[in-house]
Amino acid sequence: MWEIATNFTEVLGAVLALLWGLAARRPGRVLVGLGLVAVVVQVVLVGLTWPTGWDYVSNRVVLALPLMLAPAVAVVVVSLPRLEPRWPIHAAAVGALLDFYVVFVDRPAPPYTVNVIVLWAILLGATGLLWWRQGRIRALPVLAVVVVVLGGAVFYLQRASVLPDRVDMASMTDLDWGGGPVGMGHEHAMRNVTDLTGPSERPDAAFTLVAQEKWITLSSGATVDAWTFNGQVPGPELRVHQGDLVQVTLVNQLKSEGVTVHWHGLDVPNAEDGVAGVTQDAVRPGGTYVYRFRATQAGSFWYHTHQDSYLAVDRGLFGPLTVLPPEAKGLDIPVMAHEWTTPQGVRTAFGASDTLRRVAVAPGTPVRLRLINTSDNTVWGAADKDPRTFVLTGTPFTVAAIDGADLVGPTPLTDVRLPMGVGGRYDLTFTMPDHPVRLTDLADPGGGLLLGDGPAPAVRSDLPDFDPAGYGAGVPSPFKSFDRRFKLILDDGPAFYDGSLSFPSTINNLLFPDTPMLMVRQGDAVETTFVNRGHNDHPMHLHGHHALVLSRNGVPVRSWWTDSLEILPGQTYTVAFRADNPGVWMDHCHNLKHAFQGMVMHLAYEGVHSPFQVGHKTINRPE
Ligand code: C2O
Ligand code: CU
């Protein structure tokens, strides 16, 4: 409901501007009448979206509507019925243009003070001019002025959007202290990111990951010009036991591309987090790097490069990371859902298998499928707002864990679809029955994973969606009160990013490096609210921490711990985390195209400094 109405207000903004523009050019009863009707419809539409929440309408109510309504009232009071004088009609055209600008183009986020001042200065200035000229204004000079001003603005915005040569995390000035005590920032650093390393004792598990280029053949015969770890896609499973001290040596044998390894979902010490330009420099071709951390969380994780990740994760620089609890048993395997770009077209696959793959399992075996969604939905070509959806057929099952953290009191499920955001993990558990079980990605109902003997069960897609918000008993919240509260408005609109015009997704109407730096102190209880006011889904991923989901659209949920929270258009999520892992941490959308286009911010602990830089004159391009 909100989505339809709000999209309509965007279209209507343009219609409104057109109608009033025509009416101003050649005032006539019909055009003026239509303009007034459009104004009323716009007001009604905003009224309809109001119940979704103030955050979804505030920009329209505070900014757009008054700009449109005030001149419309002047038209009714001053110009009707003779359509003289004309200045109110012209002012209505200006107001309608500004309305369109606010609802579609600029999409400001609160506080709106500066926007209000600028927009009203434009409207009042234009109206004053029109009144003085009695609305008798020649079109050509007006057009010339508009073209010059707009052209100048576009030129300026394009230039200003080009990323600087060097962005230093410590130079970021827009610090958001979340309403808590304001500290000294991080230019007076007491600690450096590079000091926050993992333990140095002898490792319990040691691995080597070699990044190398290789043509890979998928099970269908389709070929991938892949970037691999150890010559395979996905990279090898790193399987360790809870409590192990893990050491991974990264070797970069790519021809010209830098690499890092990020441990998605593992809350490792900051220096081991593997983000180019934040926690290390990207490892150059020929270089090596050693990561060390203790795997204290049992669960399903994955690793991937965090250099050019939009491009490089898509091409294969990722793999599963499993931390087994002491009681692990039965068949326990990671399943990485990925879309491969091949000369034969985009292929939907589990791992490197894009056809139905059979695995023998004896009836009675306990099974845990660690389902991991590794593909940007902007790559696999569905509508940008659709999460990827899976179906498990042939047995009741439970979703035992989400994002590497066990749920409390999960109950058996049958006949549901499992929508998953990018980067997220669901652990699906069941006891193997005496007939086959099938896991399918609905993007390719012919493929998937088939466990056991016998004919493959048919796949249904007309099923209700699994919703973790109402599943299980919920994790009891350890949070009593909060030291800081952050609110982040997610939206999207036309804008320049790094010099090119596109439709990027924004955080508080900003793109990196202008996005706020969220500032915390060690030990803080932090509440964060995400409001998705835009058209796309955003799986938001905070590094180094797990957040407890508290509510959705103001309604408390059965809480679960998340590190990759899928937020759909029209959804507001409030989550909470404990600031217990000092460092500078990336917080971004895991639809990596969105991150690539600037949907990136950072969480920084007071007094921690990162010596690394991103930007055109550095090697580091984390997204
Ligand atoms: Cu899966 Cu910032 O990463
Ligand atoms: Cu996104």
Q: What compounds sit in this structure?
A: CU-O-CU linkage, copper (II) ion
- Determine the oligomeric state from the structure: single chain
The parts where pLDDT drops under 50 for at least 5 residues are none
Straight-line distance between termini: 34 Å
Tell me the β content.
Answer: 25-35%
Task: Count the E strands.
Answer: 38
Helix content: 10-25%
Rg for CA atoms: 27 Å
Largest sheet: 7 strands, mixed
Treating each run of at least 4 consecutive H or I residues as one helix, how many helices? Answer: 8
**Structural class based on helices, strands and sheet pairing:** alpha+beta
Shape: globular
Mean pLDDT: 93
Kindly describe this structure.
There is one protein chain. The two termini are 34 Å apart. Helix content is 23%, strand content 31%. Helix 1 runs antiparallel to helix 2, helix 2 packs antiparallel against helix 3 and helix 3 (54-79) runs antiparallel to helix 4 (87-106). The chain has 623 residues and is an alpha+beta fold. It has eight helices and 38 strands. The strands form nine sheets. Strands 23, 26, 28, 30, 31, 32 and 34 form a seven-stranded mixed beta sheet that branches. A six-stranded mixed beta sheet has the order 2-27-36-35-29-33. CU-O-CU linkage binds at residues 262, 264, 304, 306, 423, 541, 543, 586, 588, 590.
